[in-house]
Description:
Layout: E1 3-7, E2 11-17, E3 20-27, H1 29-39, E4 43-51, H2 54-65, E5 68-69, E6 73-76, E7 83-88, E8 94-99, E9 119-123, H3 133-145, E10 149-153, H4 164-177, E11 180-184, H5 185-192, H6 197-205, E12 212-216, E13 219-224, E14 230-233, H7 246-260, H8 265-270, H9 274-292, H10 301-313
Parallel strand pairs: 1-4, 1-9, 2-7, 4-5, 4-6, 9-10, 10-11, 11-12
Antiparallel strand pairs: 2-3, 7-8, 12-13, 13-14
Amino acid sequence: MRKVIGIGExxxxxxxCDEKPISALPGGSxxxxxxxxxxxxVKASMISETGNDRIGQNIIKxxxxxxxxxxxxxxxxxxxxxxxxxxxxxxxxxxYIFYKDHPxxxxxxxxxxxxxxxxxxxxxxxxxxxxxxxxxYAFLDYARQRGAILYYDVNFRASHKNEVMKVTPNLLDNxxxxxxxxxxxxxxxxLFRQHDADTVYRSQIAFYTKKFIYxxxxxxxxxxxxxxxxxxxxVLPTETVSTIGAGDNFNAGFIYGLxxxxxxxxxxxxxxxxxxxxxxxxxxxxxxxxxxxxxYNYVSEEYGEKMRKGLQNNGL
Length: 316
């Protein structure tokens, strides 16, 4: 089977409701998507780092128990694992506070093998951080040369809004590297002070890549593609328990769709058809809705088993 490689942070998410902690879960934007893919029967690995503490040990065990290759997660002996505090509001959306107690940022790793048509998922501030940028860029460039499909989730938090100017060159590099770009209305409001899908696409995205996904919470998803393709997809009505991980699982569902539907590097280069976009966004919305039905950051094990059978039925 083709494989998915995620590169990003791992954290412990502590979730609050009415100012009281109600849950503590392994998390991280790319991490959440990779866990859902592992549960769904996709061969996946994660490039990341964690501290040499109980949190880091539990995160690695959690990855392995969900079928993820954790051999590319670096454990640093003098570091503590990062924490994320997520405060749910009345609409079950979250505001975040991040704590990172590493002596300094760095990644020392051996690249996993990347083959043609494998998929690399990257994004958030991890993909922009100037301190680790040389290592991240080197891996992305290597993956692209090997014929992988690069999926970029912008995922730019308001906590980094004062660093926009500093990281803009890295952002533009990421857009140029990516085959598919997804971003939320909040991301582009923070980065460019723009809040219209067509404006963002024409002025910021289309020069670098033609395949663009613009999400707006519960509002319809906007997709722009090759040869002027433009379509809107309504979000599935869902009884939401928590929106934490909704976007991450949208990414997971989209990537699952790439694999299930046999969409390769050649299809990406030719330009996706409307039927291919329909299948991919449908899968993405389904994963996202499933995640929102519970407090967890990923799809349930039961849902994952159903998706696993879907791959098996396709001979994957």
